[in-house]
Design brief:
single chain, 6-stranded antiparallel beta sheet, 21% strand, 7-stranded mixed beta sheet, EC 5.4.2.2, globular
């Protein structure tokens, strides 16, 4: 992965998106459904794209919104739909387009009071709160967000009545229906003028901000944070929770400082990410330079991404704590300090998350539920309490309330962040110091993630590999214990493969949004061993792809 010389430096004026042109392209450019990049495509977190590339335009939003209405009718979902947006430039026009369709279809829509930005977890919480105890008339939701993607991006994701991200069966149906609408020139899409939609009897206002903030003391020991006078620094990164943090500090009387409450759709206040692009990723040290530079002013500091479903923890001892490190610390702490949780509650992790989590779970005597990438796999376990904590290596997590009941079934960046303050208050050490203790006791892994170009055909081959296509028996000098193409927790395809040896592992999977594949690697035997794993992983993937290509030589060209 080539690091840009601009990485970690303030964004220059030349990098900033031209917002008027972006919005104009949203309304004026029409996608061509015969071009794959311009069709609706749901990845692990909804449909994403840019109006500049005709991959996120008004037609996409109108088509997806009608498809969601049709899906609701098909499934008998007739409760309210909770609709929220983040601070990306395309989110406001996309929300307007969606409302025009939802209102025309007679859907009761819950918009934020005062047109407030709405974090993803606030939508999930609203859905679950409304549906609690119901047997019919269930609510669902839409979050208009491309997460931490660059400022020219738009995104649109659907959360069904379980409050979590929609599973592939749901998104596949919505995607296919939306593409039918695109192909037909939006024939069958119901729509009314925006002003009429706003005044419709089915359009309502909902106080997401106070509904979310008022219940946080059911998640976090606010009294401990307050009692120790933990000085907290928060950088919302110009995201949807920008007005939540001040209210959290005020309501719970915390010593909390918001580093910046600036909202700017160009995100000009960011330092640029590893590839020289602006990206609001709280797990990236390049994007987090502002808060890292302020770490010594606070006892603990943290940031969230644009829709506030991911966290980044900045400590005195370590600076920005790698997300896998913090997941391990949070799990170790929570299962020793949440006495009302079920003794049978397990831990959910994705196949590309650290094996340090496995070791922490083993010591705690907790069951590990390992699934493919995507938070949707955790929704049922969080709902029924069989999973106490769920996390993924990209800094997304959620966990149960203090009493062991469900909080959110989508990722929540705010509560893991606040948990870091609780940990610091109750243990007297920051999460970075606690991780170093865990590493001394359980092993000290090193990890890396690399990316490589891949054609759509290669990505398809990688996602369909079988264990038999891995011909070697050793990985970095150790016998390979297992080759997985399905996740151990639920036997679902991981969309790639994972190779495990005693002292390390790697996983390779295609990107859902770019023409690349990613190799995740970890070693418990140091940097040299890690480099060997990465090098051999690349060779294993290359050989498997070559074998897959050779196996297709006799196939017709359109199937190759």
């Amino acid at each position: 992965m080539k690091i840009s010389p601009l990485a970690g430096k303030p964004a220059s004026p030349a990098m900033l998106v031209n917002v008027p042109r972006l919005i104009t392209a949203y309304y004026t450019d029409v996608p061509d459904p015969s071009v794959s990049e311009q069709r609706v495509a749901f990845g692990t977190s909804g449909h994403r794209g840019s109006s500049f590339g005709r991959s996120f335009n008004e037609w996409h939003v109108l088509a997806i919104s009608q498809a969601i209405c049709d899906y609701r009718a098909k499934q008998g979902i007739n409760g309210p739909l909770f609709l929220g947006i983040d601070t990306h430039a395309l989110s406001i026009p996309a929300c307007a387009s969606a409302l025009e369709v939802l209102a025309a279809n007679g859907v009761d829509v819950m918009l934020a009071e005062n047109d407030e930005y709405t974090p993803t977890p606030a939508i999930s919480l609203a859905i679950l709160t409304y549906n609690r105890g119901r047997t019919a008339g269930f609510a669902d939701g839409i979050v208009v967000t491309p997460s931490h993607n660059p400022p020219d991006s738009g995104g649109f994701k659907y959360n069904p009545p379980n409050g979590g991200p929609a599973d592939t069966g749901v998104t596949g149906w919505i995607e296919a229906k939306a593409n039918e609408f695109l192909k037909s020139g939006l024939k069958g899409v119901k729509r009314m003028p925006f002003e009429k939609a706003l005044r419709a009897a089915t359009t309502h206002r909902y106080d997401y901000l106070n509904a979310y903030v008022s219940e946080l003391d059911q998640m976090i020991d606010m009294a401990a944070i307050r009692g120790e006078d933990i000085h907290i620094g928060v950088d919302p990164l110009g995201g949807a929770g920008v007005h939540y943090w001040g209210l959290i500090g005020e309501r719970y009387h915390l010593n909390l400082t918001v580093v910046s409450d600036e909202v700017d759709p160009t995100f000009r206040f960011m330092t640029v990410d590893w590839d020289g692009r602006i990206r609001m990723d709280p797990s990236s040290s390049y994007a987090m330079q502002r808060l890292i530079g302020l770490k010594n002013r606070y006892d603990i500091a943290f940031a969230c991404d644009t829709d506030h479903d991911r966290h980044g923890i900045v400590t005195h001892s370590e600076g920005l704590l790698p997300s896998n490190h913090y997941l391990a610390v949070a799990i170790d702490y929570l299962f020793q300090h949440r006495s009302k949780w079920s003794k049978d509650a397990g831990v959910g992790k994705t196949v590309v998350s650290s094996q340090m989590i496995d070791r922490v779970c083993a010591r705690l005597g907790r069951t590990l539920f390992e699934v493919p990438v995507g938070f949707k796999w955790f929704a049922d376990g969080l709902c029924n309490g069989s999973l106490g904590f769920c996390g993924e290596e990209s800094a997304g997590a959620s966990f149960l309330r203090l009493d062991g009941s469900v909080w959110t079934t989508d990722k929540d960046g705010l509560v893991p962040a606040l948990l870091a303050a609780e940990i610091t208050a109750r243990i007297g050490r920051d999460p970075g110091e606690i991780y170093r203790r865990l590493a001394r006791e359980l092993g000290d892994p090193v990890a890396d993630r690399v990316e490589a170009p891949a054609t759509p055909a290669q990505k398809k081959m990688l996602s369909e590999l079988s264990p038999q296509q891995v011909q070697c028996t050793d990985l970095a000098g150790e016998k390979i214990q297992s080759v997985l193409t399905k996740a151990p927790g639920n036997n679902a395809p991981i969309g790639g493969l994972k190779v495990i040896a005693d002292g390390g592992w790697f996983a390779a999977r295609p990107s859902g949004t770019e023409d690349i594949y990613k190799i995740y690697a970890e070693s418990f035997q140091g940097e040299d061993h890690l480099r060997r794993i990465v090098k051999e992983a690349q060779a294993i993937v290359d050989a498997a792809l070559a074998a897959g290509k050779n196996g297709q030589q006799s196939q017709p060209e359109e199937n190759a």
